[in-house]
Amino acid sequence: MNAPAPQSLYAAREPVFPRRVRGRFRTLKWAIMAVTLGIYYVSPWIRWDRGSQLPDQAILADLAGRRFFFFWIEIWPHEFYFIAGLLIMAGLGLFLFTSALGRVWCGYACPQTVWTDLFILTERWIEGDRNARVRLWNAKWDFRKLRLRLAKWVVWFLIGVATGGAWVFYFTDAPTLAVDLVSGSAHPVAYTTMTILAFTTVLLGGFAREQVCIYMCPWPRIQSAMVDEETITIGYRDWRGEPRGKGREREGLGDCIDCNACVNVCPVGIDIRDGQQLACITCGLCIDACDDVMDRTGRPRGLVGYLALTDEVSEREGKPVKAIWKHVLRPRTLLYSSLWSIVGLGLLTALFIRSDIDVTVAPVRNPTFVTLSDGSIRNSYDLRLRNKNAEDRPFRISVKGDPGLRIRLEGTAYQSVTVPADETMLQQVYVVAPRGSAPASTARTDIRFWVEDLSNGDRVYKDSVFNGTGP
User: Fold this and answer.
1) In Å, what is the CA distance from 374 to each residue of 370, 371, 406, 439?
2) By C-alpha distance, which of 442, 383, 446, 371 is closest to 417?
3) What is the DSSP letter of 198?
4) C-alpha to C-alpha distances, 437 to 371, 378, 403, 440, 449, nearest whole angstrom
5) By CB neighbour count within 10 A (0-12 exposed, 13-18 middle, 19+ buried), where does 292 fall?
6) pLDDT one-digit tens code per residue, 74-116
7) Contact in structure between 241 and 256 (CB atoms under 8 Å)
8) Which pLDDT tens digit goes with each residue over 270-307?
9) Are 39 and 307 spatial neighbours (Cβ–Cβ below 8 Å)?
């Protein structure tokens, strides 16, 4: 007797064809999509005077100089804590919004959601609304189907190219790179990056769509730790809607007429009436669809809507529910808000108190010190002088410590050097202790290097040590 074939755990993907819907949440999603895409595509073209050494670009990731520019803010490699702080704030912000309002980030502002909305919009323009797209999907391949599909794929690819093109513009002067890309003289890295981003954008936004949210993104699995019974999320009021049914005689039936409008508009293809599900991104489109049906059938809105689990019992019993602010302002959200504010205030404080000049000191270890012919002892140091200003600045270098110490700069007879704008200059410095001036009690003397910007008097210092032997 043959053994039964093992059951397959793989389910083939059922394509999702969301229907067009109008309403306040759809309008909000259009507005957020326009703003976020506008910021992404337009930002590299905003001009900002950065002197003659750098492109006049407001937002610029200067990989060659290992710096990041955001309008008047300049982040250097040693200031990576700013980037780390912003990432921490982003994570805390995600925790805050999720604990208060569920997956609002996923439903409204996530790049996957935004670009998927854009791809679905172009698909609807070319192939028609839901029913037309379903018929086209099931139809056999002919000239019409091929023509519509090719037109859609071409538009998708152009969107992908624009996405990859906007990304590479953040790393160099956008107008110059645009001309080079068109003329074919841009660096191969630019073309390679654009091609990769174009294909990944089309793949994720055009073909994978909800599969990214369900299988690739880790956040649906993590969000369960962020939400609780006070979290406001989308739900179906089954005490109003059940038992559902169609027909003119509504005796004994709930408000749900089982029209499946909420299912047909869902971008991930779920039925919100089955309860909260991992795939739900709480985009609110099912609310718009259901409210429209309720309006046309003369029933009150809100059969599908935002609510918290703690409100369910009160609504079932017809009692007043909590105000929204009582759900939002609770210990968990207040904790996230406090942590977010603390990190933000710390970054702002660090940003405003930092100096426009900086110095790092590295003693030369080979040899540790040199005894000169007259008996004096010399130490060598490599000073990295950093000028964060948009123009060249003269820096004067001095040393404080033992009164007998003298300083000399390599390559100049003066104690000052000019550091180019927005650059770090390596300057070798010699510190000499005359014979007999070094303390006899120790072979190491604490010293302090001072660097002064002669243009405005700004000063910074860095501590080091002077190595030598006593007399």
Assistant:
1) 11, 8, 15, 17
2) 383
3) H
4) 13, 12, 9, 9, 19
5) middle
6) 888 888 889 899 999 999 999 999 999 888 999 999 999 999 9
7) yes
8) 999 998 888 899 999 999 999 999 999 889 999 999 98
9) no
Residue linked to tokens 């999702």: 16
State how far Cα 106 lies from the chain centre.
13
> Rounded to the nearest 10 degrees, what angle do helices 130-138 and 111-127 cross at?
80
Q: What is the pLDDT of residue 215?
A: 87
DSSP letter for each residue of 394-449: EEEEEEESSTT-EEEETT-SSSEEEEPTTEEEEEEEEEEE-TTTS-TT-SEEEEEE
| Residue spans of beta strands (DSSP E) within 212-303 | 233-236
Q: Quick one: which of 74, 126, 385, 46 has its CA closest to 136?
A: 126
Residue 302: DSSP 8-state: -
DSSP 235: E
Backbone φ and ψ of 281, nearest 5°? -105, 10
Question: In degrees rounded to 5, what are phi and psi of residue 19?
Answer: -85, 150
The answer to whether the beta carbons of residues 159 and 197 sit under 8 Å apart is no
SS3 at position 57: coil
The answer to whether residues 327 and 230 touch, using CB atoms and an 8 Å cutoff, is yes
Give the helix, strand, coil percentages of the chain, each rounded to 5: 45, 20, 35
CB atoms within 10 A of CB 160: 25
- Tokens 């755990």 belong to residue: 9
Q: What mean pLDDT is predicted for residues 48-56? A: 80
Q: Is the peptide bond before 367 cis (omega within 30 degrees of 0)?
A: yes
Show the tokens assigned to 149: 């599909």
Residue 6 DSSP code: P
Look-up of token digits 């070319």 = 126
**Alpha carbons 86 and 89: distance in angstroms, whole number:** 5
Q: How far is residue 23's CA from residue 183's CA, in Å, rounded to a whole number?
A: 45
Lowest mean pLDDT among 321-325, 408-412, 424-428: 321-325
Give tens-digit pLDDT for 412-462: 888 889 998 888 899 999 998 887 665 544 578 889 999 999 888 888 989
| Helix segments in 139-216, DSSP class H | 143-169, 174-183, 188-202, 210-211
Strands 73-75 and 67-70: antiparallel
